[in-house]
């Protein structure tokens, strides 16, 4: 299963990038991925972070490995949770109106197979859109 969404953020690439990689501020603007814990303030290649998200009513705790951080261009992370593997990349490109952010996540494993009973495509798309909208609001409106 592949989930891909994008958004245009009306701001400089520096402002979008700095907001995104600043893990310490995620709980202030991000309503999808919560309780983010990392030994670093910002995303760094080869580091881990822990977080929680709620695709349904119950929280799912996830350990994420940050595979690649290419400044102002790309972030790739992976996560493994019993029966589910996720490969997630975020692409940042300058656009006439600001910055286009693309979120592309590929799921594999038992929990993503079949009709999507355990991981419905519709719900995952909704969460991805919400995450990108949260980022847009944080950047364009300023962190609160």
Strand and helix map with partners:
Elements (H helix, E strand, L loop, with lengths): L1 E8 L3 H9 L4 H4 L3 E6 L9 E6 L6 E11 L3 E8 L2 E12 L2 E11 L12 H21 L3
Antiparallel strand pairs: 1-7, 2-3, 3-4, 4-5, 5-6, 6-7
Structure summarized in a few sentences:
This protein has 144 residues and is an alpha+beta fold. Helix content is 24%, strand content 43%.
The geometry reads as globular
Order the strands across the largest sheet as they lie in space: 1-7-6-5-4-3-2
CATH class identity: Alpha Beta
**Uncertain regions: pLDDT < 50 for 5+ in a row?**
none
Q: What does the average pLDDT come to?
A: 87
With helices defined by DSSP (H or I, 4 residues minimum), what is the helix count?
A: 3
Rg computed from alpha carbons, rounded to a whole number of angstroms: 15 Å
- Helix fraction bin: 10-25%
**Any idea how many domains?**
1
N-C termini distance:
35 Å
Please give the CATH architecture: 2-Layer Sandwich
Order of helices and strands: EHHEEEEEEH
């Amino acid at each position: 299963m592949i989930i891909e969404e994008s958004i245009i953020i009306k701001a400089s690439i520096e402002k979008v990038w700095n907001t995104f990689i600043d893990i310490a501020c995620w709980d202030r603007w991000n309503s999808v991925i919560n309780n983010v814990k990392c030994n670093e303030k910002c995303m760094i290649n080869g580091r881990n972070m822990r977080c929680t998200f709620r695709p349904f009513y119950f929280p799912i705790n996830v350990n994420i490995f940050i595979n690649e951080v290419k400044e102002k261009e790309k972030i790739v992370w992976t996560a493994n949770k019993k029966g589910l593997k996720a490969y997630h990349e975020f692409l940042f490109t300058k656009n006439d109106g600001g910055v286009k952010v693309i979120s592309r996540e590929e799921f594999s494993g038992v929990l993503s197979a079949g009709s999507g009973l355990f991981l419905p495509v519709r719900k995952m798309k909704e969460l991805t859109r919400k995450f990108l909208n949260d980022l847009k609001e944080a950047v364009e409106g300023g962190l609160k």
